[in-house]
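Deliverable D4.2, example record:
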Amino acid sequence: MKQVLIIDASPIFRDFIKSKLDTENVGAEFANGHRDGVTKLLSILPDLVIIDINTSIMDLTEFLEKKKNDINAKRIPMIVCGPVMNKEEVAELVQYGVFKYFSKPIKFDVFFASIGKILKLDFSMDITPCVLDIHLNGKLIFIEIAMGLNREKIMLIRYKLSELIDKTGIKDPKVILMMTDLDLSFIDGTNLELLFSNIIADSRIRRRNIKVLSMSSMVKELIEGHTEYNGIEVASSLSAVLGSLMGADSKPSDGNEMQNLISDKILTSTMEEDDGTVATRFSFEEDSEQKKDGGLFKAAILDDDQVVKTMLTAAFQSYGATLDIYSTGADFLANFEAKGYDILILDIFMPNFSGFDVLKALRERNAKIAVIIYTQAMQKEAIVQALSLGAKAYLLKPQKPEAILQKVTEVLHAQNSK
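Output generated by the structure prediction step:
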């Protein structure tokens, strides 16, 4: 088993790293202070060292020199996390075997991509489009989730909440979870359970102080069906829950005054943007904003249903993925080799040239493209035939765009891991 030594990390950051390492069966050892760090470094000789510093690079000098002077330890790669430093300071770290320096707040996906590169592991990442914002106003903690439910970001919530409460010293914290932008269904049940479990993971957050704003009846049904969520309230209006959370003295009597309070004060953060150890934004989101035709992956959609094409086009482009749309199998087969697609979303039922015909043609050409079937055909024979012809997955229409994109992520991750 590969081992990672983590030195001087705060409990929140330490637990955050360990949870992800556990999923890849990577062992984690912890050290407090550089003296303890040197002792454990030389005794276990880990595959990677991660150090969290809070002030300046000078705090690391003694540890780095001892590591550099030990014949067994000097080649062990390091990742260092800390405050913003200039290029000259960061450059000095290279001589000690520092592979990457991360300024806080750390981009979660880039951080684990670097760990994966060192350990020769491919950490899977959920790239479902999702906007997550956590901010504080007074004693109210607002969590806003829009676009979709991303499991990686959901896992971040527990650490961000605990870090926020520790940093501010809030007594009896109150949480408003806003999900009014989300159109949810039973498909989202597992992710919703993960979301609520991560919010209540900190015992300082009492369930009666958690209010959920959602237009989906499914959210209320899920909460009522789980005894561990007893006390969490679901409402469809922000003003409906503010009074109980803020107390009678803070509740405006006039409707306009309440609206002004919501827009001018409550929804305005009293924190610095993305404050804390770990950022709630991922690097690929910034890349897609800067470069909408970016290069996360190249996808093709072969379907003659205009509704499906419109829906998937919007979803794929939100990632910055390169995307081409085809209505006939002949057009796709005439272009796919030159385009170099990573993945094809393919319908079975199309006139003249069926999805099965496309799969057969791709197999005859030894094409490397991964194929996901997205169709209304639910017969067992159709599923077996598609998979036997090389399709990597089979999805029945209709699906939410994020469910399709999640399957794309899984298929490409498996493909790249071979």
